[in-house]
Amino acid sequence: MNSATEQQASKTTDQTTFPLQVDSEHKATVFRPFSISPPHMRAFHHYNILGLLRLHLAWISLFACFFSTFSIPSLLPAIRQDLHLTAADVGTAGAASFCGSIFSRLAMGPACDMFGPRAASAAVSLLTAPAVLAVSFASTAKSFILVRFLIGISLANFVSCQFWMASMFSGEVVGAASGVASGWASAGSGLTQLVMPSVYYFLTHIVKFKHSFAWRAAFTVPALLQILTALAVLAYGQDLPDGKYKRIPNNTNKNYFSILFNGLKNYRGWVLGLTYGFCFGVELTTDNIIAQYFYDRFGVGMEAAGAIAASFGFANIVTRPAGGVVSDAMGRRYGMRGRLWSLWAAQTVAAVLCVGLGRIESLWGSVLVMCCFSVFVQAASGLTFGVVPFVSKRSLGVISGMTGSGGTLGAVVTQLLLFSGSNNNVSTQKSISLMGILMFLSTLPLTLLYFPHSGGMFCGPSHHPNSEQDYYNLLS
């Protein structure tokens, strides 16, 4: 891009300038995660003297929700003993945590379309923070399952995070932006596996709390983190490059249900929801069971099991962003065909590694395969959301919600089908291998995806839009 073009691209009709290059909708066409250029990177982070409290608003709010949701599995050995939970109780609670986010993610899409990602994100975090604290008061299996369900609702913030990235960044870099934001946020599921056992150890060995009180007191940490990040989003967040969120004029007269229906009738959202259900859904299930798996099968301690599980979640810092970057690179070179084939390849390799994880007999062999598995399954999640912004421009929030809901629905299916504890004849390691087979089968519908303006896996586009309105109509 020459200097004249850059100057034109960085100006709005009212002479407002942006530090980053932008397109006709004022969306950034470059992505610099460590830049301090407002307003685009403010959705990614906020800068000034309170920078450490304002950093990376879109993803850090979601990070807090992941931290809260998976803070429970990290302390499960202590909770299970104190509440006398059976294997079936643990499995049901794990599924409940994902059930809570299925419908909340679907509802979050239209909420973002109507009110903007800033308000929607903060509302969900603030409404679910009391549920995190309520874990401290659980005394029965039923109350434990209920609070896990309520906390799971917070994962709807994933949709607002993705919506925010798509609102700030153009199609040229939206895959990278979405991948980095969701990848860094998902690392919360890894960090909590380290932090929560450490907090528990501190309370029991240093402060000398009783074990039954220590794990309960520990949940003040994720509750406070979620509240603080929500308040930061409200105080310092910005919905769009031009400021406060407003509905697109073409859709101002549409109500919540018409917006929802417009997205639901698009079959591409359903296919991506299924695919995402068995990449991100499998990732969520693995986060839920992996610490307990190493604790039970290989006899490692709670802190060691947490460290191993943390390595799976921490990989998101690099792997999911890498998926978004690969999606953008393949899109620039091969169009939609490149994005779809990359997604299929990554998820297929992840499926093979998942099958292998369940068949490895040694501790260190399992750790190695798990790490390799984490790379590809998390990259597949980033690759999926490299496709989502191209499905529907009219109902972007709904499509994001459908795909995100598919992820948690997949987690529910795998948790109930394979890890519910109701079938004692199927070992956890065999269930992990079966999960890999389901992953592979879920990639096959990707071959059905076709975009008139950009093609599919096996054919090119059938229509080339001649105008912005024509392109907009193709994304119905």
TrEMBL record:
GO molecular function: nitrate transmembrane transporter activity
GO cellular component: plant-type vacuole membrane
GO biological process: nitrate assimilation; nitrate transmembrane transport
Record PANTHER family: HIGH-AFFINITY NITRATE TRANSPORTER 2.3 (PTHR23515)
UniProt-listed InterPro entries: MFS, MFS_dom, MFS_trans_sf, NO3_transporter, Sugar_transporter_CS
Residue ranges constituting the Major facilitator superfamily (MFS) profile domain according to the UniProt record: 54-454
Entry protein name: Major facilitator superfamily (MFS) profile domain-containing protein
TM region positions: 57-76, 119-138, 145-165, 185-203, 215-237, 298-319, 340-360, 366-391, 398-419, 431-451
Family: Belongs to the major facilitator superfamily. Nitrate/nitrite porter (TC 2.A.1.8) family. Belongs to the major facilitator superfamily. Phosphate:H(+) symporter (TC 2.A.1.9) family.
Signal peptide region: none
Membrane topology: Multi-pass membrane protein
Compartment annotation: Membrane
SUPFAM superfamilies per record: MFS general substrate transporter
Keywords: Membrane, Nitrate assimilation, Transmembrane, Transmembrane helix, Transport
Main location as per UniProt: membrane
